[in-house]
Amino acid sequence: MDETTQHGFTTRAIHVGQAPDPATGATIVPIYATSTYTQESLGHHKGFEYGRGDNPTRLALETALASLEYGRHAFAFASGLAACDVVVRLLPPQSHIIAGHDLYGGVYRLFQQVHQESHKVTYVDLSDSTQLANAIRPETKILWVETPTNPLLQVYDIEKLAEVAHAHGLLVVVDNTFASPYLQNPLRNGADMVVHSTTKYIGGHSDVLGGAIVVNDDQLADRIKFLQNAAGAIIGPFEAWLTLRGLKTLALRMERHTANAMKVAEFLHQHPRVRQVYYPGFFEGAARTILDRQMKGCGGMISFELAGSADHALETAKKVLAKFRLFSLAESLGGVESLVGHPATMTHAAIPRSTREERGIRDGLIRLSVGIEDVADLLADIAQALGGDH
Q1: What is the pLDDT of residues 281-338, one digit of tens each?
Q2: Is 52 in the active site?
């Protein structure tokens, strides 16, 4: 039986790769805290030799993640950026990358400050496939896509972008962190690689760091496996176990995140102190068609821009951020608790100010990771932070 297709999402999240422990019958996958494995004889072992190369707890997580993303192979790393770094390391020297112009600041830093000597990056608006086609060079190797994007929640047509990219021999990498495997499966839309910060929705409880890459191609998987072992930025067994625990409730959490976020977005949309709300639930026309075809829901992330003078936007934002009580002012997203952040000075601070503002990441922009609390309490907290009744 193919567990990827024969069972529903939550059944797979709970069971795939997580059979009872053969040694003890433990229902939950144990934490295999071992750095090495005793071999039966020289050259004969049970599939595990050294902890950097393989670990049973990590293998359980990787098997489950592959199933949930409809992939053949998954690889777990110490963080989302560690996973992204391995993708870049797959490229030959002096390669060219095309990336969406709205993307996580940490990935921008990875491109511009870590790998700036070995690779070049062009940032384009991926809502226009013509811009993508015009940016392709002979040395272009990868198209890097976030959808929904961070922090402006744009949704791009993966299938259409993949058609253009594959016609020129490019690999398509999709960062699926904001959607999670529950809401979107890019490999089914033509992507070659999916990356995740499993720290976020997959872990779901703000208590563990991790990242993942999921692929279908066997040769590509062999190269990623080599780098996972050779470079060594692996997730530890305890972190893998925590991530597996979070994965079991991902579907339930994403449904509540999405339901709460829609109500929060509607409230913000009507508030006089809010100039604009960025949330996929408000899409119309072609963008709505993409959303409905590609995603099961709109997700739990919202960004909004405060009304008022641009000259005083940062000061205004600081005052609003200081008033939140239930929403914690913090980096990250995707936990059960609600978080509020300021992209310009937090998650996207690595991007130069002029570039940030050109991309719409202005000082008055606030990002919400809407948690699973009672939504009435969240609305009340937003109302008092913005001022006025709700």
Answers
A1: 999 999 999 999 999 999 999 999 999 999 999 999 999 999 999 999 999 999 999 9
A2: yes
Residues 6+ away with beta carbon under 8 Å from 160: 129
CATH of 3-247, one of 3.80.10.10, 3.40.50.2300, 3.40.640.10, 3.20.20.370: 3.40.640.10
Catalytic residue, chosen from 21, 52, 125, 223, is 52
> What are the residue ranges spanned by the domains of the chain?
3-247, 250-386
Give yes or no: 381 in active site.
no
Out of 32, 104, 182, 279, pick the active-site residue.
Answer: 104
Whether residue 175 lies in the annotated active site:
yes
> How far apart are the C-alpha atoms of 24 and 261, rounded to whole Å?
43
Q: Is 129 exposed, middle or buried (0-12, 13-18, 19+ CB in 10 A)?
A: middle
Among candidate residues 175, 192, 363, 381, the one labeled active-site is 175
Q: What's the pTM?
A: 0.96
Return the closest-CA partner of residue 185 out of 221, 150, 214.
Answer: 214
Catalytic residue among 200, 296, 356, 359: 200
CATH architecture, range 250-386: Alpha-Beta Complex (3.90)
353 is catalytic: no
